Amino acid sequence: MATELKNDLFYTWYKIDELVKAVKSGSKTAESLVNKSLELAKKFNPEYNVVISLLEDKAISRAKKIDEKVKAGENPGRLAGVPFIAKDNFLVFGAETTAASNMLKGFIAPYQATAIERLESEGAICIAKANLDALAHGTSTENSDFFTTLNPHDKTRVPGGSSGGSAASVALGIVPFALGTDTGGSIRQPASFCGVIGFKPTYGLVSRSGVVAMASSTDTIGVFAQNAYDGSLVMDVMSGKDDLDSTTIEKPIKPISQLDLNLKGKKIGVVKEYFGDGLDKDVAEIVKNSINEFEKLGAEIVDISLPSLPVALAVYYIVVPAEVSSNLARHDGQRYQYSASEANDLNESYEKSRSQGFGAEAKRRIMIGTHVLSSGYYDAYYKKAQTVRTKLINEFNDAFSKVDFLAGPVAPTKAFKVGENDDDPIEMYLQDIYSVAANLVGVPAISIPCHNVSGLPVGMQLMAPQKSDASLFALAAQYGEMK
Ligand code: GLN
């Protein structure tokens, strides 16, 4: 982590490997780790609005079970006793799962996400559910139907979004890692704003089962961590094929301990289109300088172009609302939580439930999505967007035949002020300009904290070919150690 960030105010955890060793040896109990996390959550939450709900009883009772296992000489797992926070769009069995939307408020998960299941089966303990932009639509957490999370480095600014609560919880040190979802940048951008590692995997690497669907062809599940080693370990545990999600792939990810970290002869392509108009000058400078630092580790830095990149945002804001409008059809006031009470018939119930339960941003996306899918407009918008998406995939493939990694900024600005973009959806959408391409083409991407700009963190983005997820953690680990 960059030393000049104000992290000395916050808690820094030992590496997860060391925590687990301590739990396994009995020198630390799982219960003490969980209590520490709960204490930090209670200390920071009133100030920063990070979590929607605490899972205190469940977490303590799970920790006690882990400690009993240790005492009985049984294997408590690779993440024994490690506390974490999940974005509130992950179903955690028996816990409220709201996706920060009034539509789901009070909804108790009847089963649990595969990602949570896999982490728990290795002994990790979910202590809380984090705030987000409602239904993961947004870049600041201001779209949360409940409250706005504040940036740990400056309380007048947003933490980014949509996984802003998860990013802030890791920056504050409430937990060593947190889960997020990234459909168009929702892990990387808040990671950049909060100064932590944020990782979005290859599409299909982690099962989407049990995670509230946003846009099924770009939704991915990833991690925020205090260091690259922890992030890679958590991804290793969560990833791999799952019968409950037919798009999942075999896991190629390896923990860093099993990787060749040598960067000699590796090429990093600095994407020309990422440094055009609209990028803040100070962000551009710091990101360029930081990418160049990889030369010291033996990598070669070259220029590269992805000509269709400037239209990726337009493609995203057609394809994603189209899928959003389809996925949100299930929230009809009959199947899930919110249902308008005063309706006279089924149609009126649908109408009232949806108009009262959804916030403005969800409604905007449903309208855009149904419009671009409607007959007469389908060819002009949706089909054209899918054609350009294929062009983008080809351009990325071409680029990766020349370089090992692609690099650029995560977002055009550092953390902006609460309220600054709140009434301007286009300004908010422009935050996603550098992040959406990785989702449209399905490649892994990471935000690595570089130096800060006027006291605020800024991340750089590195992307790799599909299934080269682990190599991004290797880059982040080396970069972190060089600083
Ligand atoms: N900010 C983007 C959007 O609002 C990305 C959201 C996400 O990745 N969940 O669509």
Q: Can you give me a brief rundown of this structure?
A:
The protein has helices at residues 16-25, 30-48, 56-71, 114-121, 164-172, 188-194, 228-238, 281-292, 312-327, 346-357, 360-373, 378-400, 425-430, 436-441, 469-482, and strands at residues 51-54, 83-87, 125-130, 177-182, 197-200, 220-225, 267-271, 300-304, 405-409, 445-449, 459-463. It is an alpha/beta fold and 483 residues long. Glutamine is lined by residues 136-139, 162, 181-186, 214, 320, 432.
What does it look like?
This protein is an alpha/beta fold and 483 residues long. The protein has a single domain, classed as Amidase signature (AS) enzymes (Alpha-Beta Complex), CATH 3.90.1300.10. Helices cover 38% and strands 12% of the residues. It has 15 helices and eleven strands. It has helices at 16-25, 30-48, 56-71, 114-121, 164-172, 188-194, 228-238, 281-292, 312-327, 346-357, 360-373, 378-400, 425-430, 436-441, 469-482; strands spanning 51-54, 83-87, 125-130, 177-182, 197-200, 220-225, 267-271, 300-304, 405-409, 445-449, 459-463. It has an eleven-stranded mixed sheet, sandwiched between helices. Helix 7 packs antiparallel against helix 15 (469-482), helix 9 (312-327) crosses helix 11 (360-373) and helix 9 crosses helix 12 (378-400). It is globular. It starts with 15 loop residues before the first helix and ends with a helix. 57% of the residues are buried. It binds glutamine.
